[in-house]
Amino acid sequence: MAARADFFLAVNYPWLTYGADFGRSPWGYSGVALPQTRDTVAADFARIRAAGPTVVRWFLLCDGRSGIRYENGVPAGPDEVLFPDVAAALDLATQANLRICFSLFDFLWLEVPDDTSRAVAAGPVFPGRGALQFSGGREALLRNILVPLLREFRAHPGLAAWEIVNEPEWAIPEFQRSRKAALPLGDARAFFAEVAEAIRQESGGVPSTLASARLEWVRAWSEIGLDLLEAHYYPELERNQRLSLAQQLAGLGDLPAPLWLGELPAADPPSPGYSLDAALTACRDAGLAGAGIWRWRPPETGASDAAFGSITAEALSAWLARTSEFRV
After folding, report:
1. What is the pTM of this model?
2. How many helices (H) and strands (E) does the chain have?
3. What is the per-residue pLDDT across 163-196, written as a single tens digit (0 to 9) for each?
4. Which end of the chain is flanked by fewer CB atoms within 10 Å, N or C?
């Protein structure tokens, strides 16, 4: 398949503080609408755009710890600063000539919560940690949080896409054998299809996507009405595959919607044959809609993704300079 003239290059921001960029959390408030936070994001966005990317992927509700009012553990509505924080982020993106792909929530919120006694020892407990463990909680999230969010920012020019969920397979037993993976695939498909339909009806044309953790799993979500299919690629996770990324992409065949890779690691030390440059080129040459690099902001010390590092503006600019047919 020929490269697309509208191929987009993205970076995963992916947060300033996980679960605390949008709305108030049990730890306090540090959202994007605060002047000091706005200044940090504005500086980052200016550097990102100068390096060439046009899309920023940013985690929004994460595991449900911030931005939501709960009643009896069920989402009842956005808190008083969720929408102002989202508005501030979109305003900053528009000023920088960027668009944001918001990842609405993370697989961690779908997982079975840790034992309460251990969670208390680790720090504050937020009331909605188990809200998505039952259908009523998931429906309340859609009705009371997501639909008002979509309506509030309908057709906003700073939006690239609404991503329904990040890597849900880690919470689904058909993909992951774990005590924490208890959401049946059928229930997940039904709920995500409802969210996709809500995006179609309420977003004003902003596309829907869903971040599958692996390329080989992306077809699991191909029939729920997504506008963009999305997968992530980490060589270490693909060690059971004998095919290169380019070969895996070629083997996907026809898909019902355009595909983009939302996460490619900036580096992968356990996989010495991996090259970000080669991975980006493989995505472009395979006719994908776009590709996103993990990550822009440096990972936290000791974080699970620390080995992947972060992308530099110089590396982005160098790849773009070698890709003369690419348009930014």
Report:
1. 0.96
2. 10, 10
3. 999 999 999 999 999 999 999 999 999 999 999 9
4. N
